[in-house]
Specification:
Its EC number is 1.3.1.48, 1.3.1.74. By secondary structure, the protein is α/β, with parallel strands linked by helices. It is 26% helix and 25% strand. Strand 12 (215-220), helix 6 and strand 13 (234-242) form a beta-alpha-beta unit. Helix 2 packs across helix 3. The structure holds NADPH dihydro-nicotinamide-adenine-dinucleotide phosphate (NDP).
Length: 333
């Protein structure tokens, strides 16, 4: 068994030399425990930020889907798939019955029968990013039919999902993403009303053109200048869900401070940051709802699959650079 240990804090983009791959001894299973072998590991933006707040050396954090290959727990027999935060490791020993009860703990979940779909969806549309989209919409920005939603980071795991729920609710949905190919995918495949390449368009002009009734809800995945511009184009009493600020995560030099308060004050916006862990005790509600939409054909997904445990760092960097459409995952086995 092997695991990644972070030995150096990230500066700018993560590098292979920031990590060590370490061999792990696997102890005998105790009563109630299972041994799970990793199939897919998730690479997510929060890793870039979170690990720099840890005492090093530290095991690399990460969600994964694993198959039970040995079991001393009759409820979790060999062959079942589980997902949870086991880190960047090839094998994990865990007791799925032991629920740590501190607030915000996301439990180990058994992967439901996904029919023709791959188990990796438990890291994306039927996992953490899917729940971020579901609860972010339902509990934070609460769009009503006919309203206009703008999404940044729109072609990524969370953004592409948020836009589709926006369409299910009956909203006008406008996205910003980093390539023309991504924008074409959002409009042609996912039914976004408009999508723009934020690297090449004039953001103000794009908003004026695509949001004739201005913006009621803004789902913010990136932060920075574009967010201030969007807030200035919102309707009075608009709602902003601050999900992430990826434009600042890998910046080698601190980004320029963008003053967002004038838009917030003059439009009387409600701006709320959130962490999906807030809904840990409703975790299965989100997964079930997204699974129903998937089965009804109302929700589509796309995965960027990297291959091999040795390529974890390339996958993390690739996702941070925007190589992915939809969810970025690594197929380990
Ligand atoms: P994505 O699948 O969206 O991948 C990251 C994307 O970010 C890239 O594909 C890239 O797309 C975009 N990006 C990279 N650098 C920049 C930049 N400088 N400016 C704008 N966009 C950039 O990741 P997720 O869907 O997993 O996460 C999206 C956001 O949601 C992140 O900010 C993340 O931290 C946050 N998040 C928050 C959660 C919460 O509980 N609050 C939970 C999960 C995610 P492009 O080509 O468009 O630039």
């Amino acid at each position: 068994a092997h695991k990644y240990v972070l030995t150096k804090y990230f500066e700018g983009e993560p590098k292979k030399s920031d990590f060590k791959i370490v061999e792990e001894e696997l102890p005998e299973l105790k009563e109630g425990e299972v041994l799970a072998e990793t199939e897919y590991i998730s690479v997510d933006p929060y890793m870039r930020v979170y690990m720099n707040s840890r005492q090093l050396p530290a095991d690399m954090i990460g969600g994964q889907v694993a198959k039970i290959i040995s079991s001393r727990n009759p409820k979790y027999p060999i062959g079942k798939y589980v997902s949870g935060y086991f880190g960047w490791r090839t094998h994990a020993i865990l007791n799925p019955d032991v629920r740590i009860t501190h607030p915000g703990f996301i439990p180990v979940t058994v992967v439901p029968d996904l029919g023709p779909h791959p188990v990796s969806l438990s890291l994306g549309v039927l996992g953490m990013t899917g729940n971020t989209a579901y609860f972010g919409i339902r509990e934070i920005i609460k769009p009503k039919p006919g309203e206009t939603i703008v999404i940044t980071g729109a072609a990524g795991a969370v953004g592409s999902h948020v836009g589709q729920i926006g369409k299910i609710v009956g909203c006008r949905v406008v996205g910003f993403a980093g390539t023309d190919e991504k924008c074409e995918y959002l409009e042609k495949e996912l039914g976004f009303d408009r999508a723009f390449n934020y690297k090449t368009v004039d953001i103000k002009a794009a908003l004026k053109d695509s949001c004739p009734k201005k913006v009621d809800c803004y789902f913010d995945n990136v932060g920075g200048e574009i967010s201030a511009t969007i807030m200035n184009h919102m309707n009075r009493y608009g709602r902003v869900g601050v999900c992430g600020t990826i434009s600042s995560y890998s910046a080698a030099t601190p980004p320029k401070v963008t003053i967002m308060q004038p838009g917030i004050v003059f439009k009387e916006l409600r701006v709320e940051g959130f962490n999906v862990n807030r809904w840990a005790d409703r975790w299965n509600e989100g997964i079930q709802k997204n699974l129903n939409w998937l089965n009804e054909g109302k929700l589509k997904y796309h995965e960027k699959v990297y291959h091999g445990f040795d390529n974890m760092v390339d996958a993390l960097v690739g996702m941070l650079r925007g190589e992915n459409i939809g969810k970025a995952v690594v197929k380990v086995k």
